[in-house]
Amino acid sequence: NAGVTQTPKFRVLKTGQSMTLLCAQDMNHEYMYWYRQDPGMGLRLIHYSVGEGTTAKGEVPDGYNVSRLKKQNFLLGLESAAPSQTSVYFCASRTSGANVLTFGAGSRLTVL
Amino acid sequence: GDSVTQMEGPVTLSEEAFLTINCTYTATGYPSLFWYVQYPGEGLQLLLKATKADDKGSNKGFEATYRKETTSFHLEKGSVQVSDSAVYFCALTSNFGNEKLTFGTGTRLTIIP
């Protein structure tokens, strides 16, 4: 009964380094999302996927890439991290027949 | 595009006080409306939802009514508890291209004993 699992929970990077956040869901959901949460700005959608092998841009996609090679996994990559990408990142998923999201616990990223 | 405007926080109340957190929205068509709650150190979880005008969503003593005429979905609770301390997010999904959920900025609620 894991739901949505995000890895890692915490990470500190230096400017210019790269990293990948992993989101895994065991609910057979079709749709998956990556959001970032910043103080005073709520949650902003970075990228999302409506099915295996598909991805689409959200409202703040610059500086991020994503891949959905397997239905259960949605990866968020930062090729060259910047301090502006310091944030808490949330992954979420849902079925195509429902509009309620299930969220992971979050990944806190700090870029120095 | 779609947008959600939420009451700015933080909000601090005494236990057993009445709570209102305002939420208004802009959307095309007939959106579905949601309140999500985020407890400290956790991800968001659905608190309640409403899918059409005049629907009332309710859960854990919280209520919100979908008001199309005022484009509002205000969250209310008659008597708050310390355990209600959290951040509350209003959100919508449009029925056109409904892949995405649009969130408000969140309202931090603190209940003091």
Structure description:
The complex is a heterodimer of chains A (112) and B (113). Chain A has strands at residues 4-7, 10-13, 19-25, 31-38, 42-49, 56-57, 65-67, 73-78, 87-94, 102-103, 107-111. Chain A is mostly beta strands. In chain A, the strands form two sheets. In chain A, strands 2, 4, 5, 6, 9, 10 and 11 form a seven-stranded mixed sheet that branches. In chain A, strand 4 (31-38) and strand 5 form a beta hairpin. The mean pLDDT of chain A is 94. By secondary structure, chain B is mainly β. Chain B is 0% helix and 50% strand. Chain B has strands spanning 3-6, 11-14, 19-21, 23-26, 32-38, 44-50, 56-59, 62-65, 75-77, 86-93, 102-103, 107-112. In chain B, strands 2, 5, 6, 10, 11 and 12 form a six-stranded mixed sheet that branches. In chain B, strands 3-9-8-7 form a four-stranded antiparallel sheet, with no helix packed on it. A two-stranded antiparallel ribbon of chain B has the order 1-4. The termini of chain B are far apart. The mean pLDDT of chain B is 92. Chain A binds chain B through residues 4, 31, 33, 35, 40-45, 48, 50, 56, 58, 90, 92, 99-101, 103-106, and chain B through 6, 32, 34, 36, 41-46, 49, 89, 93, 98-101, 103-106.
Task: Please write out the topology.
The complex is a heterodimer of chains A (112) and B (113).
Chain A: E1 4-7, E2 10-13, E3 19-25, E4 31-38, E5 42-49, E6 56-57, E7 65-67, E8 73-78, E9 87-94, E10 102-103, E11 107-111
Parallel strand pairs in A: 2-11
Antiparallel strand pairs in A: 1-3, 3-8, 4-5, 4-9, 5-6, 7-8, 9-10, 9-11
Chain B: E1 3-6, E2 11-14, E3 19-21, E4 23-26, E5 32-38, E6 44-50, E7 56-59, E8 62-65, E9 75-77, E10 86-93, E11 102-103, E12 107-112
Parallel strand pairs in B: 2-12
Antiparallel strand pairs in B: 1-4, 3-9, 5-6, 5-10, 7-8, 8-9, 10-11, 10-12
